[in-house]
Amino acid sequence: MALLPAERVLRAAALLHRHGSSAPPSGLGVYRANSVEEELEELGTDGRRVRARAYRPTERKDAPALVLLHGLHRLGVDEPRLRGFARALASSGVLVYTPEVVELTDYRIAPASIETIGRAAVRASEITGRSQVGVMGFSFAGGLALLAAADHRFRDSIAFVVSVGGHHDLDRVARFFLEDRIATAEGSELRMKAHDYGLLVLLYGAAGDFFPGEDEKPAREALRLWLSGEREAAWKIAEGLSQAGRKKMDAIFAEKGAELGEEVRRVLGKQEAAMAAVSPAGKLRGVSGHVYLLHGSEDRVIPPSEVLWLAREVPASRLKAVLVSPAIQHVELQGKPSWLEQARVVVFLASLLDAAEREPRRIWLCP
Fold first, then answer.
1. Bridge-partner residues for 294, per DSSP?
2. Within 10 A of 240 (CB to CB), how many other CB atoms are there?
3. How far apart are CA 111 and CA 328, in angstroms?
4. H or E element in which residue 221 lies
5. Which of 364, 310, 320 is nearest to 168 (CA)?
6. What's the pLDDT tens digit per position in 58-98?
7. Are strands 189-191 and 158-164 parallel, antiparallel or unpaired?
8. Is 315 in contact with 357 (CB distance < 8 Å)?
9. N or C of the chain: less Cβ packing under 10 Å?
10. Domains of the chain: residue spans and CATH
11. What is the per-residue pLDDT for 25?
12. pLDDT tens, 188-229?
């Protein structure tokens, strides 16, 4: 903490508390919520109009900007946790811009999202009049944010990028969903039970290969409804599948997708090029902004081993902070972390606020 201005640490502590509470703690009242929200419509990469929202701190006309990206969620910019964090950031003196990434609202990890993110950084720069802004992505959007920061079309507009629970190699993560094990950057193997959510997402994106013929369309819709939490509607549609399709769907809904291993592996084999296109692996040497990596130590969707693959590839001069913490569960705070883990998260957030204001310092938070 001594490496950062006390004011940044104080703001970060208030930010962390505000994100999990409706009122600031005693002594931090100066940072009470004070922002306004503005609904926007932007031109999407395919020419369609897409939604966005800006959260503006009312007491700072010269506020730095941060593009905040939702993960795979049907609510997109309306997702409650995203909105809560955006409000907390805005109340800490940062203009927050949240663009709707259409593919992610449809549970798809696609190259088009990289351009959406890059264009959002350019747009946020225009809104604030600053030459560069920060970009922060949750879950698979974290990996996509890193790709945008390495893209020659957008990297000059991105001062720093933050990946929270992001991926390095989607193919490696996909196989983790099946095998409950994954290779680490140190040459060993991490074993942990994968969350079934990840496999659902992959099968949804590859429904045409996994549910061929007349089953494809209804199977895709059933998977989409299941991912959205509409379980009864998903079951109802699944009843109309062929006998073979229904057998597969029953296994998926019963969280026994790994039992379909060989067929899933065959489908994943067809997806290798598509997964490589949305993986930061091998593409991060072009990052010119500073990089901050945050990951939950028990993340079962994108395992924590991915963050160290990312850290190894990001140029040393660009990597500013790495934190693997039990205080994070995939992309949100969990339970009641110890004071030490809370302090580490506060330092991480303080380093981000410092990056938004000026040239970042290098902060190492874990081995």
1. 164, 323
2. 13
3. 27
4. helix 216-227
5. 310
6. 877 788 899 999 999 999 999 998 998 899 888 888 999 99
7. unpaired
8. no
9. C
10. 6-169+279-364 (3.40.50.1820), 172-275 (no CATH)
11. 37
12. 999 999 998 888 998 999 999 999 899 999 999 999 999 999
